[in-house]
Amino acid sequence: QLLLCIFTFAMVLVPEAKDQSKAAKGRRRGLARPPTATPALAWALDDPYTTMADYEHSIQDMVHQLRNSSEPGDTTCQVNLRLWRSNRRSLSPWAYSINHDATRIPADIPEARCLCTGCINPFTMQEDRTMASIPIYSRLPVRRLLCQVPGEAGQKPSGKKKCHKKYQMVMETIAVGCTCIF
Q1: Segments in the chain forming alpha helices (H)
Q2: Any idea what the CATH number is for the domain that residue 90 is in?
Q3: Closest CA to 115 of 99, 132, 102
Q4: 60 and 108 Cβ atoms separated by less than 8 Å
Q5: How far apart are CA 56 and CA 72, in angstroms?
Q6: Which of 17, 101, 107, 112 would staple 94 via disulfide (CB 3.0–4.6 Å)?
Q7: What digits encode the pLDDT tens for the residues 55-111?
Q8: How many whole angstroms separate alpha carbon 143 and alpha carbon 64?
């Protein structure tokens, strides 16, 4: 689901960037035709937090689904073709665990963990260790808590250390699935 969210986001932004690039080329050539459609994310320019809030909410939904899943929490290296989720149908199956960090928003992010050392041979449906299962990583935007203690920035230190909460947008590397390599 996380990959689907990232893929959907990319599918919306890439065509928009191409349309803007074509419009810029047209202006350089002297063509003055208006764009045929408004950009899909034009509303996001006025309120950049709406997009990030939606993104964080979708991650919270995934964590909630993971915590309340009725599917077995099997951690064995096997493919289950009866399950609809791709992580259990893959030749390099993985399970999700929750990556928790209290100094980050969102604090909980689903993270993939490979269930096999090798990969499942599609003919025998047994683990084949001539290949290796490795995680696939993606960089996700998160807000990281930066704590400034009074006195660090030239202020007078008091007896108690209070933290002035400030968040900064950073990219964090998270495992989103697994794949086979030779």
Answers
A1: 2-28, 42-46, 48-67, 86-89
A2: 2.10.90.10
A3: 132
A4: yes
A5: 26
A6: 112
A7: 888 899 989 988 887 666 667 888 877 776 778 889 999 999 999 999 999 999 999
A8: 20
Residues 6+ apart with CB under 8 A from 132: 117, 118, 119, 180, 181, 182
Whole-number Å distance between alpha carbons of 2 and 70: 19
pLDDT in tens, 99-126: 999 999 999 999 999 999 999 999 999 9
114 phi and psi angles, rounded to 5 deg: -65, 135
- pLDDT for 24-54, tens place per residue? 444 444 444 444 443 333 334 445 556 888 8
Half-sphere exposure of 151 (CA within 13 A, CB side): 9
Per-residue DSSP letter, 156: P
Cis-peptide into 93, omega within 30 deg: no
Query: What six digits make up the tokens of 101?
Result: 């960090």
Q: What is the DSSP string of 4-48?
A: HHHHHHHHHHHHHHHHHHHHHHHHHTT--PPPSS--TTHHHHH-H
pLDDT of residue 150: 55
Domain with 60 in it: 52-67+74-148+166-181
As given in the structure block, the two tokens for residue 5 are: 């969210």
Rounded to an integer, what distance in angstroms lies between the CA atom of residue 149 and that of residue 165? 9
